[in-house]
Design goal:
Strand order of the largest sheet: 5-11-10-7-8
Shape: globular
CATH class of the largest domain: Mainly Beta
Number of helices: 0
Low-confidence stretches: 1-13, 16-20, 32-38
CATH topology of the largest domain: Immunoglobulin-like
Distance between the termini: 34 Å
Strand content: over 45%
Oligomer: single chain
Length: 121
């Protein structure tokens, strides 16, 4: 439990808790719901040249996986097509991306998920 002033903010079903800690503004993210049993996961979350995206599909569906920058512009389309039910992995090459925060977005009729990663060199 935080004992200093905090400010809550909601962005598309994600609670963002903003607080001031030792001279820095900090953001803590908490997802409020998930439509995918094991979700979408990026490893590692701080990268310099490549990362791995893993996702679990509850059933076979047509999906689009895109990479967006911090303001929502699509910088790359990772995959478009049908994914069968189960676990899937994609290797993402980040060498052409500038330093910054990016989001991998999985969009399907019954599943919409996002995973954040940071490019730093």
């Amino acid at each position: 439990m935080l004992d200093w002033p905090t400010h809550g903010l909601w962005v598309e079903d994600v609670a963002l808790l903003l607080y001031y800690d030792y001279g820095k503004v900090c953001v803590e993210e908490t997802a409020t719901r998930s439509t995918v049993p094991s979700g979408l996961h990026v490893s590692p979350s701080i990268v310099s040249c490549q990362c791995c995206l893993s996702c679990v599909m509850p059933q076979s569906e047509y999906v689009t996986i895109t990479c967006c920058d911090a303001v929502g512009r699509i910088v790359d389309v990772i995959f478009t097509g049908v994914l069968s039910a189960g676990q899937h992995e994609f290797t993402i090459n980040t060498t052409s991306l500038a330093n910054g925060v990016y989001f991998l977005m999985l969009d399907a009729p019954r599943v919409k998920q996002a995973a954040k990663f940071i490019v730093t060199r």
